[in-house]
């Protein structure tokens, strides 16, 4: 199989702290440095949340703006994807950074349980977030925590609420949500191919399931997500020393399955994203 695999690095998230792994980048400066190293290692997409200095999650557009500016300067061409999921319950504040026009943003189209709470995605908020993404020319990455989310995304695609080719990520292994189950993974994929055959897809596995989901995706022709947001360990005994170390692990799997790693340019072509003006052709 020779189709390039797009590697996304989820650098920070809203949950892991320095106490879990000192390599988790918290400040914007740390995030830029960590992403740069991951970009050099082969990541084409940076999925980012931002944090306050005390490590609590925030949706502060000013921090997102500084992060975007730094990434465009230090990782030219890399696809910048902002999370709109980091602060469930915060309503429209979750999309307050979308006017910054990142290349992509995460979009969850339904609700489910998280380890200690409900991940609230009511229909009016989902429609509003999708509308903001159309307004600012942002490609959503659909976060499918459940089979119903794939059906809902396909419906919104048909209705023009999420135009163009969908990019769907299966999320598995979140406590109290869908486990990393091979049969379900296969059925998710079957459903995507049936409902939206022109969609691109990938998966995120949480904790020890990260490497497992990377392997399933890479072997089946999808794209892959890694990074400290989802998993802070290389293996049971070893903390991941950096986001880049996790990216390198995913690159090795691509080599195992003879999948070339997509450059940022190839990733933008595959996902139908604009080429950045600031990068020389
Ligand atoms: Zn995230």
Automatic annotation (TrEMBL):
Keywords: Metal-binding, Transferase, Zinc
Pfam family, one: BKACE
Keyword Zinc: yes
Lineage: Bacteria, Pseudomonadati, Pseudomonadota, Alphaproteobacteria, Rhodobacterales
Cofactor: Zn(2+)
Keyword Hydrolase found: no
PANTHER family: 3-KETO-5-AMINOHEXANOATE CLEAVAGE ENZYME, 3-KETO-5-AMINOHEXANOATE CLEAVAGE ENZYME-RELATED
Protein name: 3-keto-5-aminohexanoate cleavage protein
Organism: Rhodosalinus halophilus
Alphabetized GO MF terms: 3-keto-5-aminohexanoate cleavage activity; metal ion binding
Origin: domain of life: Bacteria
């Amino acid at each position: 199989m020779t189709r390039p695999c797009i590697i996304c690095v989820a650098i920070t998230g809203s949950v892991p702290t320095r106490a879990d792994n000192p390599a988790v980048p918290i400040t914007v400066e740390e995030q830029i440095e960590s992403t740069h190293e991951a970009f050099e290692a082969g990541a084409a997409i940076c999925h980012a949340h931002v944090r306050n200095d005390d490590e609590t999650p925030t949706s502060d557009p000013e921090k997102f703006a500084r992060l975007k500016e730094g990434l465009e300067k230090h990782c030219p061409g890399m696809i910048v994807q902002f999370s709109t999921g980091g602060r469930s319950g915060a309503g429209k504040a979750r999309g307050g950074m979308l006017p910054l026009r990142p290349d992509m943003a995460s979009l969850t189209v339904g609700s489910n349980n998280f380890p200690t709470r409900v991940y609230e995605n009511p229909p009016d908020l989902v429609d509003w977030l999708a509308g903001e993404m159309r307004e600012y020319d942002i490609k959503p990455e659909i976060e499918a925590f459940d089979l119903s989310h794939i059906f809902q995304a396909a419906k919104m695609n048909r209705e023009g609420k999420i135009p163009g080719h969908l990019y769907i990520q299966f999320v598995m292994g979140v406590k109290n949500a869908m486990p990393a189950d091979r049969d379900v993974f296969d059925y998710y994929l079957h459903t995507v191919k049936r409902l939206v055959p022109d969609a691109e897809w990938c998966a995120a596995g949480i904790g020890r399931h990260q490497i497992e989901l990377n392997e399933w995706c890479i072997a089946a022709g999808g794209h892959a997500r890694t990074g400290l947001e989802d998993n802070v360990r290389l293996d049971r005994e070893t903390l991941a020393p950096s986001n880049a170390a996790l990216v390198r692990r995913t690159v090795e799997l691509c080599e195992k399955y003879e999948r070339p790693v997509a450059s940022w340019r190839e990733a933008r072509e595959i996902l139908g994203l604009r080429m950045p003006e600031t990068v020389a052709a």
